[in-house]
Amino acid sequence: MEWELQSWQSSCAECGREFADREEYYSALYSHDEGFERKDCCISCWGQGQRDAFSFWRARTKKAPEPPRRFVNDDVLIEFFDRLAGATDARRQRLAFIMAVLLLRKRLLRETGRRRNDNKVLWILHCRSLDKEYEIADQGLAAGETAELMQEIGQVLNLSLDGVGDRLCR
């Protein structure tokens, strides 16, 4: 015979307060005609319900994981972009374009204008921290290309950029 039990609840069944990291609490199973019901209670609310419990135990919540660091130091990002900005090969130009968009979103670069050169639109960008102007060609990238380039930048800089490429395409 198999029973379906509720998983751990993140708040007290009695008072509704959210459990804190590493907080002790009680879990209890109550027997009903339909099966078992699980309730989790904070230490202060535990008491009366234990008489009716089929089974109970004391446990501790797990520590919430640290949120992942998404970006490295801004100076490192700007230095990486500065080195890519003068690239002549197509791959590095695409990487420079993606980095430019990231730095624009972080407000580390400011667009001061645009101009046409041959069949490309050039973005004129200013980096206040370096007091330097850049011209970056709009690469007209598709979503798949953007995701691939974001993954490459993430590997080079040891960053987690999951989902960032999706936001760049908007």
Walk me through the structure:
There is one protein chain. With 170 residues, the protein is α+β, with helices and mostly antiparallel strands. The chain has 2 domains: 1-65, no CATH class; 74-168, no CATH class. Helices cover 28% and strands 26% of the residues. The strands form 2 sheets. A 3-stranded antiparallel sheet has the order 2-1-3, with no helix packed on it. A 3-stranded antiparallel sheet has the order 4-5-6, covered by helices on one side. A hairpin with a 2-residue loop joins strand 1 (24-32) and strand 2 (35-42). Helix 1 (74-85) packs antiparallel against helix 2 and helix 2 (90-105) crosses helix 3 (143-157).
Offer a concise description of the structure.
With 170 residues, the chain is of the alpha+beta class.
Mean pLDDT: 83
Element-by-element helix/strand order: EEEHHEEEHH
Task: Find the structural class using helix and strand composition.
Answer: alpha+beta
* Poorly predicted ranges: 164-170
Q: Specify the number of helices.
A: 4
User: What is the straight-line distance between the termini?
Assistant: 52 Å
**Biggest β-sheet, characterized?**
3 strands, antiparallel
Give the strand line-up of the largest sheet.
2-1-3
Note the beta-strand portion: 25-35%
The assembly state of the depicted protein chains is single chain
Number of domains in the coordinates?
Answer: 2
Global Rg: 27 Å
Dominant shape:
elongated
Q: How many strand elements?
A: 6
Residues in helices, as a percent range? 25-40%
